[in-house]
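Reading a protein record of the kind used here takes only a little practice. The record below shows the convention in full:
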Amino acid sequence: MEEKRGLTIKDLLIRLILIIIFIFLLIWLFPMPDLKPLNNQIFIDNLTRMKDAAKSYYTIERLPKDFNTSKRMTLKEMIDKHLILGLMDSNGNYCDEDESYVQITKLENEYIIKVQLSCSDKKDYIIEHYGCYDICSNECKMLEAAASNTSYNTTKKHKTTTNSRVVTTANGGKLYEYQFVKNECTDKFDKYVCPSGTYLVGDKCIKNGSETLTKSAYKKVEDVTSTDTKDATPIVSSTDKKEPANCKVTTLTSTINASESSSVTDKVVKSTQKISADKKYTYDVKGAIGTVKKVTANYKTVQNYKIITATKVAKGYKWTYVSTLTSPQSNLAFVNDNEKLVYVDSWEELTCSTCFTTVKIYKYYRYKKEATGYDYSCPNEYTKYGTDKCRKPDGVTKTCPDGYKPDGDVCSKQDTTYSCSKYGSDYKLDSNKKTCTKTLGVTYSCPTGTKKTSDEKYCTKEIKECPSGTKEISGGKCSKPVYSCPSNTSAKSYTLSGTKCIVKSKVKVCSCPDDTVQTSDKLYCIKTNKNTTYSCKDYPGYKLDGKKCTKTTTTQKTSYYCDSDYILNGTSCTKTVNKNSTKNAEAVYKTYCEQKYKWSTSTSVQGWTFTGNKREIN
């Protein structure tokens, strides 16, 4: 019986060729779907989103005003204004934010908007036309409708009425129409404004405030050990040799504050100033004539934001000098997390003003740790706003401007205008008081402290100032500080230097040779030997250590510290946090006026002015 052999190379090649043929048959029978229509639809949807966002943004106030002028906004600017999110193409890439844009252009009777989109898979644009019914207010639509109804028909010797116009003939004579003109003004919303010290967010005015938070500092108690060493006092025996110390008179220099007093002088006349005299007018006041009219305005859509205070984080810390400490103790230096005391210098000075001995004084600088600056961070979903605030969108509101009420598609209010035309051109309108005022005359008078001149419209005033080196005090006087030092004595002399007195004191200082010991009164030197004994009786609490007296003291040192976002102030921790207040912004309106013309068969029309033009009606 034959054994079965494994697959040969020939068998493997045949099987591979069969598999390849099978794959090609599958590709031929089931081709890949055409994704081009889907890609085109994604591009069209992105174009439409840009167009719709632009139409919502370009309200009447934001449209170009002059013929053949344009306004343009890139996709990046639209994203920054939160009008639209980033647009992604069919390849999964974001479209170019600088090459993509919308542009709106004013023509004679319409607007044209161009929307261009540039993406990695396609670049193209669309153009759309807008007329009055696309972007104008209801008032614009009504004006257009009224303009379309101005045609009329006339027939000689007949009476025809069209659109409330009456044309009349009489006895076959000529019939004329007269042209009239008047200004029609409307108030339109312009912008929101805020008082000084506040900033505008939507239609709200926000004022930055602050609040100081205080809490007790953390207390830290530590044991501090210090050792003081003094020369021991030798016990004099009959064998010790006692000799007078080497004493000499020397001069020590110190500084004290000078005594301050002041000398008082009067102001001196520096110049004479010419000022206007006070005017006093006499008036004739009448009540203004009021006319009530209906004023409309568009709804305003405001993006609301939720605003919070950003988290304050210190950038780093530095040591800041606080004060200077002097002490006879040599071991006061320390350092902790928030404070340190650093040794700086030392010197000898007299123990008292009448003593002959000196004591060593140590000088220290005290420092505290302070932040070198702060950074501010925002939580997720919030973006940085200003220096120390975060905000995120919080819905939109559609409301009427202040003083207006909803009225269908627009907002409206009853507005009263006042006029003084009834009283003549000499009367001026005061809209706030609703009065008409005519100036009858004026008189002049000089304020207190001034003098009259030959011209009644002007007065003169003397300008008085304090002399150089002095300052003004109450009562209109001038004061100059004067400094002085105490009188010299036989032991001390004083020299004035600015606001300080330099003191030179003559003192007696005694010293002994190196191989001797100075007595406690510093007046004698004892030459010691190996049998000399020493004592610490002059220094209670000290222990004898050879020729020295030492005393070790353990004290408790208390220090305080705060959390990183607080500042240490004595035993308290403080920090300042922002606290904002919000109120409604003031809506500002601009008055837009245009001249309206009409023809009438009447020779006068109430509220209109005759232009002087007339035309014959055939």
User: Anything to note?
Assistant: The CA atoms of residues 290 and 418 lie 4 Å apart. The longest strand covers residues 358-377. The radius of gyration is 49 Å. The helical segments are 9-29, 36-57, 75-80, 132-135, 138-147.
